[in-house]
């Protein structure tokens, strides 16, 4: 005869009904003991009389649940993570299984299967970290008391998790935090991802790849913010680029990030705050970690190999998906963004300004090339030796120069002549097209820029 094992609550129910039937006890007292109705007691009596002790075994015992994953799927979850998605966190891996592998599994199922296979995510939960830390400490100190173990582990984790929180900003656009992270995002070469996140909503408002953390990268992020949202109230970024510039042996305007970026902020009326403490801009620091864990495998799975493809994937696919998953709907939050200028003014505002001096040949040297000043019609303009000017390199690459209160275009002076009047057949000269030259404005005055440059370098006042 097969031996029947009952659980504790089943054994109690069986004992009460057995005594009720064998000793003819009161049904109402049995119902009160089991916290059921008399009708249910009558059902249990009939089951006991028909099947005996086996009637009290739960019907789902030893049955596999309908929503239980098969052994094949469990193996597939572990195999896919080890072979294809090894650099994803578990939450992102669950989304990719649903989207790319068509495996509708839950996060808890993925987490339990992978941890059973001794696979842990890059960022562990605090409870899991503490559990693993205790196991490591116990392995090193097998004779340690429980109290000593708790004190040692809790103290170590407290230092690791020390990051005080603060309230978010109230308005959308009140504070935009910016930073760049340089890792191997795609291919084999390191690239710098410049990010900007709104503190109030947690939305990414700008992102751009460049090969290094440069002014060009931050300018393109600023351009995205201006065109998509408007002029924000404040930027918060780190000031490590200042120290990197001041200690560099070879200095150039492109590397003087905060002076140039701060001058553009001053023109548009944006406050610029810098800090060297990462906790002061924790929103962008945490966003960098999330983006690094999610974007890198997505770029690999999408077959991205060039920086142009990566920038297109950022704006077209990744940022909208990131904001839907982690951000708030900014349309439901009061905005402090002001109306942005037109695209032409944005192009000339996000410019690199470089003081220069004309030589005896009415030329200036810029980026190892020689240039001459010309009017909009193409007519050459000559200046005396030593005339001071300000070269403006617009965001789209157009080169201008300001002398006193006049703006001129710059024409590159080739090393060798394009045409020889003595040896080449005379060609019909082309009529030069008239170029657009923006009107002179106060921010393009050489004295204004030099004053801001002195403030930035000696007083660290950027905007």
From TrEMBL:
<protein>
    <submittedName>
        <fullName>Transposase</fullName>
    </submittedName>
</protein>
<feature type="domain" description="Integrase catalytic">
    <location>
        <begin position="160"/>
        <end position="349"/>
    </location>
</feature>
<dbReference type="InterPro" id="IPR012337">
    <property type="entry name" value="RNaseH-like_sf"/>
</dbReference>
<dbReference type="InterPro" id="IPR009057">
    <property type="entry name" value="Homeodomain-like_sf"/>
</dbReference>
<dbReference type="InterPro" id="IPR036397">
    <property type="entry name" value="RNaseH_sf"/>
</dbReference>
<dbReference type="InterPro" id="IPR001584">
    <property type="entry name" value="Integrase_cat-core"/>
</dbReference>
<dbReference type="InterPro" id="IPR047797">
    <property type="entry name" value="ISNCY_transpos"/>
</dbReference>
<dbReference type="GO" id="GO:0015074">
    <property type="term" value="P:DNA integration"/>
</dbReference>
<dbReference type="GO" id="GO:0003676">
    <property type="term" value="F:nucleic acid binding"/>
</dbReference>
């Amino acid at each position: 005869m097969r031996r029947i094992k009952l659980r504790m609550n089943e054994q109690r129910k069986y004992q009460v009904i057995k005594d009720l039937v064998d000793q003819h006890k009161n049904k109402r007292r049995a119902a009160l003991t089991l916290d059921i109705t008399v009708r249910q007691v009558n059902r249990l009596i009939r089951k006991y009389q028909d099947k005996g002790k086996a009637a009290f075994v739960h019907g789902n015992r030893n049955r596999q649940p309908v929503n239980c994953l098969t052994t094949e799927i469990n193996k597939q979850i572990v195999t896919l993570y080890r072979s294809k998605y090894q650099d994803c966190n578990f939450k992102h891996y669950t989304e990719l299984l649903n989207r790319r592998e068509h495996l509708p599994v839950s996060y808890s199922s993925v987490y339990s299967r992978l941890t059973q296979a001794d696979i842990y995510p890059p960022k562990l939960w605090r409870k899991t970290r503490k559990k693993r830390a205790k196991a490591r400490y116990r392995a090193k100190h097998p004779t340690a008391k429980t109290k000593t173990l708790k004190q040692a582990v809790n103290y170590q984790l407290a230092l690791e998790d020390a990051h005080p929180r603060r309230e978010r900003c109230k308005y959308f656009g009140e504070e935009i935090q910016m930073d760049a992270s340089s890792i191997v995002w795609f291919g084999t070469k390191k690239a710098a991802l410049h990010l900007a996140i709104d503190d109030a909503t947690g939305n990414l408002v700008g992102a751009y790849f460049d090969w290094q953390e440069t002014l060009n990268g931050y300018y393109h992020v600023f351009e995205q913010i201006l065109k998509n949202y408007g002029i924000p109230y404040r930027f918060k970024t780190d000031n490590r680029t200042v120290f990197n510039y001041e200690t560099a042996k070879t200095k150039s305007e492109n590397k003087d990030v905060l002076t140039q970026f701060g001058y553009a902020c001053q023109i548009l009326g944006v406050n610029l705050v810098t800090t060297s403490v990462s906790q002061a801009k924790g929103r962008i620091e945490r966003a960098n970690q999330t983006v690094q864990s999610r974007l890198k495998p997505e770029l690999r799975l999408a077959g991205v190999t060039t920086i142009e493809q990566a920038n297109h994937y950022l704006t077209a696919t990744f940022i909208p998906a990131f904001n839907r998953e982690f951000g708030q709907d900014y349309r439901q939050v009061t905005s402090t963004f002001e109306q942005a200028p037109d695209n032409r003014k944005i192009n000339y505002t996000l410019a690199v300004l470089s003081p220069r001096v004309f030589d005896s040949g009415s030329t200036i040297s810029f980026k190892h090339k020689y240039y001459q000043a010309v009017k909009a019609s193409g007519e050459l303009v000559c200046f005396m030796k030593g005339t001071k000017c300000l070269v403006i390199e617009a965001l789209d690459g157009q080169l201008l120069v300001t002398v006193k209160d006049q703006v001129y275009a710059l024409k590159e002076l080739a090393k060798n002549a394009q045409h020889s009047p003595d040896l080449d057949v005379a060609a019909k000269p082309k009529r030069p097209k008239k170029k657009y030259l923006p009107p002179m404005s106060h921010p393009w005055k050489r004295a204004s820029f030099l004053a801001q440059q002195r403030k930035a370098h000696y007083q660290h006042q950027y905007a």
